[in-house]
């Protein structure tokens, strides 16, 4: 059976006399990819001494070169030293034959594998300094490439270039056979470049196909080495999405080497990070195309790791790349900052910051390749733990679908992260993070890895994320917040059932085409006659003064939010501390906590005043009523100004002698407990058997059958009240 094609035939038209006989085979032919590449973009020139100056060429966002077309003039199309075509391997078509030939060639040799040949790789191939391993003729079609295929016992790598300078892998198909043999925890990265030796440099992988790793990555360039290049490669598929098997995902390219180049590659159906940048100081990542076709991809380009370089991304440039949704789901296109990925207790942390990267002119687009457009959770996501960061001139195509199920996140006391969208960042002064384009929406951003595909039964919208025209809605899995054509704001399901209504029908006459429902940075949920109007038509938050919540500006460290849910309460307008300004119903399930100064506000029976339930810093839970109409000043000032408030009810424990932190905790056992000063000061004793165990905590306006505070069991029977 022929394992390769005849390399070439003699030119019968030539009149040149034949060369003298030689024991060596002839040199390899000119490769099929040697057509002139597109010219590189011109460099900006100094101003000319004329009255008319032409600006330098500016390429639109996205990859400048299509996959496989990045110019590589430094790569020779002929061997520069000793060379051999391994057409008659002594040890069969195996890694042993390849290794023996490489060892025989020695440093600087080039080993060509015959076109279309297939090799069984049972142990890692080790290259020597300045060696090249390639398919003869440098073909770019898969069918013509020499194939290095892993056997079941091949561990940990297929090709190992650890701490070896000058190596080159070119025009090879390298297959880890995950689809045949499955995952193997004893395997490592398929192609290992880099290494800790600072004297190691100049490694290059060009125009290879690398796919089906049995562990974490197809290709990795480790830290320590300089000038590692991976160009024009086709990477993937890699791993299994977390929606299928937890923990079996894999990277396309993992890159930590400094002053390197990742360019012209196409990464398809990776499942962890398509390209993961581990600082890689001084590296250029450009003109790569990332395609999510049939799998769940956690990150397109990840810039989230603080190790191994202590977050130093100085002169690392991620520019002019294209990320395509083509039927699959991407959690985050370009995640930037450690807690944009995952966040544990106490994070973000000031001693774990990523610094000084440049992310510019990247494009998120969609492409239907027979599986629909696909979707994405977050486009460009920048978390609070970056400094000196630049993220500008990036583009998300308007047709890209942003969605994601937030229901599985362990969000912690800070609450859920902001809803999916193209440009999101952590709240706070933008200058603290760096230089970001104006499209970024601030909010609580952490642990986005928890998001999964599909409509979500719960969303948290921050200012600039809610802007609805009449007839538009925010869709959950089953329910939706809808701004009706008549001006009413309702929570409705697909069958038309109404769970809550603001009762505003008929209030936007004359503004039906221009009105907008908006959540402002100062906490107001209001209807404007037209976008950016300085005066609202009406507000759904009459308890707030016109200036809203003190300190809540677009640059504030924390912001108000609107939380929507398929379960009750369907709608809650929250203060930055988690207090409730407006709710479709005033009840919460167990495992809910209310720290000091976290108010729950609702209108009184006659809607002439505002009731506020709040834990005071002296360790008493109180139900207060405003004395001067509905408008209240939040946060409440302590000691309580009795000229502003009535005390309608309070817990019977004695006040503490001084201000202290505390929490009212509605626990998972059904007990409502007031903790302060390290002690339990008061409780309702509503734990025990199901008929006694509380399941819901409810606030009322004091009217008939609506006590100021009550606890009910699963059957909605009252087990305690004020």
From TrEMBL:
Stretches for region Disordered: 1-66
Matching InterPro entries: Bulb-type_lectin_dom_sf (IPR036426), Pectin_lyas_fold (IPR012334), Pectin_lyase_fold/virulence (IPR011050)
Ranges annotated as biased composition (Pro residues): 16-49
Superkingdom classification of source: Eukaryota
Name of protein: Bulb-type lectin domain-containing protein
Organism: Dacryopinax primogenitus (strain DJM 731) (Brown rot fungus)
């Amino acid at each position: 059976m022929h394992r390769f094609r005849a390399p070439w035939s003699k030119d019968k038209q030539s009149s040149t006399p034949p060369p003298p006989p030689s024991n060596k085979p002839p040199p390899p032919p000119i490769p099929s990819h040697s057509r002139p590449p597109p010219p590189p973009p011109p460099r900006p020139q100094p101003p000319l001494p004329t009255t008319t100056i032409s600006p330098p060429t500016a390429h639109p966002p996205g990859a400048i070169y299509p996959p496989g077309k990045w110019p590589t003039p430094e790569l020779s199309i002929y061997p520069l030293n000793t060379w051999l075509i391994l057409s008659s391997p002594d040890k069969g078509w195996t890694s042993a034959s390849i290794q023996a030939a490489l060892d025989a060639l020695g440093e600087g040799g080039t080993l060509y594998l015959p076109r279309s040949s297939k090799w069984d790789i049972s142990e890692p191939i080790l290259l020597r300094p300045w060696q090249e391993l390639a398919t003869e003729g440098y073909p770019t079609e898969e069918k013509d490439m020499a194939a290095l295929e892993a056997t079941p016992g091949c561990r940990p790598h297929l090709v190992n270039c650890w701490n070896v300078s000058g190596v080159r892998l070119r025009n090879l198909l390298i297959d880890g056979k995950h689809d045949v043999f499955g995952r193997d925890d004893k395997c490592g990265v398929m192609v290992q470049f880099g290494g800790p030796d600072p004297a190691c440099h100049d490694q290059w992988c060009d125009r290879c196909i690398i796919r089906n790793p049995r562990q974490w990555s197809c290709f990795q360039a480790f830290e320590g080495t300089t000038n590692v290049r991976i160009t024009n490669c086709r990477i993937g598929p890699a791993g299994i999405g977390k929606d299928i098997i937890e923990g079996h995902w894999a990277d396309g390219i993992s890159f930590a080497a400094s002053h390197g180049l990742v360019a012209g590659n196409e990464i398809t159906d990776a499942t962890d990070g398509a390209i993961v940048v581990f600082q890689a100081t001084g590296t250029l990542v450009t003109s790569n195309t990332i395609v999510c076709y049939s799998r769940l991809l956690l990150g397109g380009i990840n810039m989230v790791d603080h190790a191994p370089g202590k977050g130093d991304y100085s002169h690392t440039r991620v520019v002019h790349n294209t990320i395509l949704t083509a039927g699959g789901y991407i959690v985050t296109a370009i995640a930037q900052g450690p807690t944009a990925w995952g966040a544990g207790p106490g994070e973000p942390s000031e001693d774990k910051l990523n610094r000084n990267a440049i992310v510019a002119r990247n494009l998120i687009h969609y492409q239907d390749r027979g599986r629909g457009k696909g979707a994405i959770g977050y486009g460009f996501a920048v978390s609070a733990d970056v400094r000196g960061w630049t993220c500008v001139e990036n583009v998300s195509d308007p047709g890209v679908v942003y969605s994601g199920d937030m229901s599985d996140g362990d969000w912690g006391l800070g609450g859920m992260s902001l809803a999916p969208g193209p440009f999101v960042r952590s709240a706070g002064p933008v200058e603290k993070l760096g230089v970001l384009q104006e499209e970024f929406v601030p909010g609580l951003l952490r642990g986005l890895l928890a998001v999964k595909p599909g409509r979500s039964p719960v969303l948290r919208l921050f200012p600039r994320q809610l802007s609805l025209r009449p007839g538009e809605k925010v869709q959950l899995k089953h329910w939706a917040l809808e701004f009706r054509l008549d001006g009413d704001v309702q929570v409705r399901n697909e069958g038309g059932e109404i769970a809550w209504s603001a009762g505003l029908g008929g209030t936007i006459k004359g503004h039906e085409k221009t009105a907008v429902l908006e959540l402002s940075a100062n906490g107001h949920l209001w209807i404007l006659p037209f976008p950016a109007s300085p005066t609202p038509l009406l507000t759904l938050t009459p308890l707030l003064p016109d200036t809203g919540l003190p300190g809540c500006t677009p640059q504030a460290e924390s912001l108000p939010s609107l939380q929507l849910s398929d379960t009750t309460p369907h709608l809650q307008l929250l203060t930055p501390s988690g207090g409730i300004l407006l709710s479709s119903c005033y009840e919460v399930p167990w495992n809910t906590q209310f720290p000091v100064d976290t108010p729950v506000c609702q209108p009184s029976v006659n809607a002439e005043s505002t009731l506020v339930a709040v834990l005071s810093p002296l360790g008493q839970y109180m139900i207060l009523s405003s004395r001067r109409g509905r408008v209240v000043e939040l946060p409440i000032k302590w000691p309580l100004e009795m000229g502003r408030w009535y005390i309608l009810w309070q817990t019977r424990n004695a006040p503490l002698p001084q201000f202290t932190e505390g929490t009212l905790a509605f626990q998972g056992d059904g007990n409502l407990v007031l903790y302060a000063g390290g002690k339990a000061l008061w409780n309702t004793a509503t734990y025990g058997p199901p008929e006694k165990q509380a399941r819901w905590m409810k606030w009322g306006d004091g009217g008939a059958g609506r006590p100021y505070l009550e606890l009910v069991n699963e059957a909605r029977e009252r087990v305690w009240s004020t």
